[in-house]
Amino acid sequence: MKSLKLAEKRRSVREYKKKTLSHEHRLYLNDLLGHKPEVVNQTHVEFRFIENGFEKAPQLMGLAGYKGRIIEAPHYYAILGEEDSKECKIAGYVGEWLILNATKENIGTCWIEVTESEKAKEVLGIASQKKILALIAIGYPKSERKLSNIYASAGKGGLSSLTEMGYPNIETHYEKTPVSGRKSIVEFVFTEEWGKTPSLEDLEKLGIHEVLFYMRLAPSYENRQPWQFFVKENSIDLFIEKSDTISEIAQCLDSGVAMFYFEVGMHDIGIAGHWEIMEYDAVKGVPDHYRMVAQYLY
Length: 298
Known about the structure:
Elements: H1 23-33, E1 46-50, H2 53-56, E2 64-65, E3 75-81, H3 85-104, E4 108-114, H4 117-124, E5 131-139, H5 149-152, H6 161-164, E6 189-191, H7 200-206, H8 209-217, E7 227-231, E8 235-241, H9 248-268, E9 274-280, E10 290-297
Parallel strand pairs: 6-7
Antiparallel strand pairs: 1-3, 2-4, 3-5, 4-5, 7-8, 8-10, 9-10
């Protein structure tokens, strides 16, 4: 989600107006979190709303930030959970779900990494045994331009799974060439065997070319796009490229974000399925610098 942005369609906001959210928008977000995706019920993940963000921000210096810099915002959401890979993946999934719903209302957001959870909990007044897996800055952006071309370019009368999930329609045009330095849709999928890159025509035959459009837009920490999909007969395995410079929590959050967008795309083309979350550091035939994090069964 970081250089967290959706291929210049949904952007991370790093400067906010000195203005709190309206009563209507607070009710909107509270209602959303009262109807979180079912996947969160499998975990202990929870969201805490932080009221006085601008006051707390200086105290969070050195404890949380984006590339070491705290993002000052009128509010934050603290995402709490157990410190294990499954919890972090679900946190990434549901956190990005919340961000997209906020973007729908032109509410600005930005993922923030937390490096000192216990001290950050003290600053934020959170009494919990759980770890802060991440913060999400939230408020009205200083810039007046629309937050997201995804929503601005929504086509009238179209249908997508994002619409069914509460978002406007999205134009799912795709190209072979990457957008703004991002990978093309054939670069993060293998078929038949690891390392075999399909052609765009191959992906069209498989019916997943539009799904990969969503993945091309999905945000990731430092915009790494670390995911790789391995298409099998009745499943699609999700792998994440390991990093020695990015925290394990941030990598797991990226996994959850990828799961969210891939699932949206699969629903869009009418392929029902579900994710099985797992963690395999070594898979036969796969390079050591990749780990398998989930499997989509359909």
